[in-house]
Amino acid sequence: MRKSVLILGAGSDVARALARELAQAGYDLQLAGRKVEELAKDARDLEIRFGIQSRALYFDALDLDTHQSFYEALKPRPMGVVAAFGLLGEEDLARHNQQEWLRIIHTNYTGCVSILTIAANNLEQSGEGFIVGISSVAGDRGRAANYVYGSAKAGLSAFLSGLRNRLHKRGVRVITVKPGFIKTKMTRELDLPPRLTASPEEAATDIFRAISKRKDVIYTRWIWRWIMLVIRNIPERVFKRLSI
Ligand SMILES: NC(=O)c1ccc[n+]([C@@H]2O[C@H](COP(=O)([O-])OP(=O)(O)OC[C@H]3O[C@@H](n4cnc5c(N)ncnc54)[C@H](OP(=O)(O)O)[C@@H]3O)[C@@H](O)[C@H]2O)c1
After folding, report:
1. Mutate to test the pocket of ligand 1, among 7, 8, 16, 34 (most ligand atoms within 8 A of CB)
2. Is residue 149 among the annotated active site residues?
3. pLDDT above 80 for 110
4. Residue 33: CB within 6 Å of ligand 1?
């Protein structure tokens, strides 16, 4: 039987690169996001290039009330689900503006919990499959520069860890992806250090390998695992004085 993967936030640069990897490996794809017309073009392109079946679907992570019916309408039910959507937001604005911090938290945390809870319950019944959640190194330690976003990603990492613990016995794998820097639409305004910055294609290859090799948690680029080990271990009395 053909295997279908659902990609949520499929317009993300990382998600688009991952879609190509998955299509090349023969997975059919359901591309979900807010810009359906653009996703439909991607779906057609993937079908022509890789001979798979693909289609585009409307999905808004913030529209929680629609998540159950969205998932129930999927045909076929996916055996893999990738949550790639995310929002860096404007941290300075979030310090004063309730709408902004709510948008950041609901996109990166609540929206993910909502749709992945539905996906998890469904996959649990079938007794196989995988869930990929794209979190961030920003969730490993709160920093002045992006602690609202970081706290949402920290919540997401904890959620995925618990989900993995729950679903391991049921044959469903849960993979947490913690990117450092990736050169995408999200970071186009930022001046990123080249040695620590992955391309979307490099991040996608790391994610695809994690799915194939049954990994639990990966950092991309891998060096971030060690960078964050150091950063997590800086004593709070020192950390609070730093600007990193
Ligand atoms: N780039 C980095 O350095 C970096 C580092 C750590 C973690 N990450 C994480 O990696 C993931 C992929 O991000 P990216 O770097 O590829 O950024 P991106 O190209 O900006 O993609 C983000 C995607 O999220 C979608 N999205 C935002 N809000 C949504 C909503 N309410 N409903 C549905 N989709 C929504 C956007 O869709 P629209 O096009 O409709 O806005 C966009 O396609 C994200 O979870 C991000 O937090 C990225």
Report:
1. 34
2. yes
3. yes
4. yes
Note whether residue 80 is domain-resident: yes
Q: Residue type at 43?
A: A
Q: How far is the CA of 84 from the centre of ligand 1 (A)?
A: 6
Which of helix, strand or coil describes residue 27? coil
Helix pair angle (200-212, 13-24), 10° resolution: 50
The active-site residue, picked from 71, 109, 149, 219, is 149
Q: How many domains does the chain have?
A: 1
pLDDT, tens only, 36-67 = 999 999 999 999 999 999 999 999 999 999 99
**CATH no. for residue 100?**
3.40.50.720
Is residue 214 a part of any domain in this protein? yes
What pTM was estimated for this model as a whole? Answer: 0.98
Domain span including residue 177: 4-239
pLDDT tens profile 153-194 = 999 999 999 999 999 999 999 999 999 999 999 999 999 999
Helix (H) or strand (E) holding 240: none
Does any domain span residue 164?
A: yes
In a domain, 244, yes or no: no
Q: Cβ distance 11 to 40 under 8 Å? A: no
Write out the two tokens for 37.
């017309």
Contacts 24+ apart (CB under 8 A), 95-100: none
Phi, psi of 32, deg, nearest 5: -120, 135
